[in-house]
Design brief:
Blueprint (H helix, E strand, L loop, with lengths): L2 E5 L8 H16 L3 E4 L5 H12 L4 E6 L14 E5 L2 H11 L3 E3 L4 H15 L7 E4 L6 H12 L5 H4 L2 E4 L2 H10 L7 H5 L4
Parallel strand pairs: 1-2, 1-5, 2-3, 3-4, 5-6, 6-7
Length: 194
């Protein structure tokens, strides 16, 4: 992987465990020469990961819609800052620029971004690995909900397996490097529609 898109919050709750996870992830990305692609803000967890990458000599590419430049305080100290017209273009651009996705703790926006690229993977629109960095068990309830979806037959087990997760950045990236969805449209193949 040459680049990883990191979805994360524009807020930071001060959790030292999350700060340590950001530091470990940024260390690993710089060491492996993996560029950061992210939402372009300089506040919250977004700002933390971007600053860490830049301070360690890595590459950080921000993608932010024009209307959020002031709200999320667009980061001017990046390798590159791309300004889009809207949120849809932002998500598409981040997906296009990355070879995989890691989701850190965040709020509605983080979840929306995660589920959109996950749905694209399920539909075979891309074949990139998607991981949850489960810092301090933050995503335990979400992972349990995915299992409920399987148990109640709203989600196929093959599609549940598309979500990689770990509480350690190194292990998660190792899983992502081994990931091979093989979906010529996993969702469609699973339904014998092709």
């Amino acid at each position: 992987m040459k680049s990883i898109c990191v979805f994360c919050g524009s807020n930071f709750n001060g959790d030292p465990t999350l700060l340590q996870a950001v530091e470990e992830l940024s260390d690993l990305m710089v060491k492996k020469d993996i560029a950061l692609v992210y939402g372009g803000g300089r506040v919250g967890v977004m700002g933390l990961i971007a600053n860490q990458i830049m301070q360690k000599g890595g590459k950080a590419i921000g993608v932010i819609p024009e209307f959020l430049m002031n709200k999320e305080v667009g980061h001017e100290g990046l390798s590159e800052l791309i300004i889009t017209e809207n949120m849809h273009q932002r998500k598409q651009k981040m997906a296009d620029l990355s070879d995989g996705v890691i989701t850190l703790p965040g709020g509605y926006g983080t979840m929306e971004e995660f589920f959109e690229v996950l749905t694209w993977l399920q539909l075979g629109l891309h074949h990139k690995p998607i991981g949850l960095l489960n810092v301090g068990g933050f995503y335990d309830p979400l992972l349990q909900q995915l299992d409920v979806m399987v148990a109640q037959k709203f989600l196929k087990p093959i599609n549940r397996e598309l979500v990689l997760s770990d509480d350690k950045a190194g292990t998660l990236i190792a899983k992502m490097e081994l990931f091979d969805a093989q979906p010529d449209d996993v969702w469609f193949r699973d339904r014998n529609l092709t």
